[in-house]
Each structure stands twice: as structure tokens, then as C-alpha cells.
Amino acid sequence: MRLDKYLADMNLGTRKEVKTLIKNRLVKINDEIITKADYNVQDKDIVKVNDEIINYVEYEYILLHKPSGYVCANEDRLYPTVFELIESKRKDLFTVGRLDVDTEGLLLITNDGILAHRLIAPKFHIAKKYYVRLENDLIPEAKEILEKPMDLGDFITKGSTFEKISSKEAYLTIEEGKFHQVKRMFEKIDNKVIYLKRVSFGFLELDDLALSNWRYLSEEEINELKKMVGI
Ligand code: URA
Asked: What is the pTM of this model?
């Protein structure tokens, strides 16, 4: 890989900015100053900028406990984005599906397009569990109605798992993730979601990760996710 791409991929600046770093003799490979932006970096090479080692990371897998008030988008005119909450080496990250701006909970962020695409594909049936707080009391038929396929106008749900916690609280587990799906399902039974939090995504849970905090997925978790979607 070209040296300027290597450094730009690792977020050291734009292609133009990293070329300036190289020209200014701040980049070393195996402790030798390199002034050519098109130097072909090999796996065994040790790349340093300002004498700090820069390892190349091809893929990143991040689990964020998303707070309310942040959008799942690369840019937004009204709200800060979830990417402002994480520190990452890669700048080509995206979210695996989306949570609404006012939804909290477990959000995966990666630059692994194949894995992300499969994790949100309905055919792999990845369960997403939400904690829901409602404006009104649940009707007695809630479980029966929500668990069967529901016609939401633009699509029919595949069915879900409903667990009542109290008169105004429940868990709902769905395998799809259509726009505002959970909110729309409760609207259909004349209720309103006033607080929504995704508590799990497949086998991944928030555990004790505090609101707004994030962590990298472990190798085992990445492999397990890949296994679930046949990679
Ligand atoms: N369903 C919703 O309505 N909103 C979300 O953010 C996620 C699922």
C-alpha cells in the first residue's frame, strides 16, 4: 500500500496533509526517513510519524452505548453524530443499521461493509431486543397483537417477542429494523413509546457499559458475529 494512503487511512490527515508530513521528513519506515509519498509499505515495515509507531488497522468494530440526542449519520445540521462520541483510527466507519435520535442503547459501528450488510439483512434473523416505556397502560391483547405479523402500511412485520414488565413497560424483540418500527408497532395498539432503548443485538449486550461509552469488540465477538451470518 502507498505510504500516503496508509497514513490517510489511519486518520493522520487528508491525502494532501499526509504528503506534507512526508515532505517535511516526519515519517520514518524502519527508522529511516522516507520522503516519497508513493513508497510501497510492506507488512513487516514499522511506520512512524514524529517517532510514534502507526500500526495499520484495516477493520474496526465498535460497540457504543448510544445516548439520546445523537444521530446515526455522518453529518447532520441539527444534532451531533454518534461518531463524535468515539475515537477511531478509521474515518470510513458507519453504523450497523440506525437508532432514532431519541433512542438509546446498543449500536454497532464498523467499516466492515460485508459484515454490516449481513447483520441487518432480514434473512439472517438477528434478534434486536428493546426496552420500551409507554405513555398509556398496555392493553390486555398487546402480546397477542404484537407477536403476530403486523401491517404497518409499508411493510408487514415478521412477528416479535413481547415481554411485559409492568403496565407501562415491556421488552420487544424484533428481527427486522425498519424505520421507527418499534414506535410504529406500539402506535398500532394506540400507545406511544416515550423512552426506547436497545438492550441487545444478537448475543451482544450492553452489560455495564455506561451511557455514551464505547468499547472495541473482542476477536471472539467479531468471529461469533461473522459465524452468525455465514462469513
Ligand atoms: N424502532 C424504533 O422505533 N426506533 C429505533 O430507534 C429503533 C427501533
From this structure: 0.91
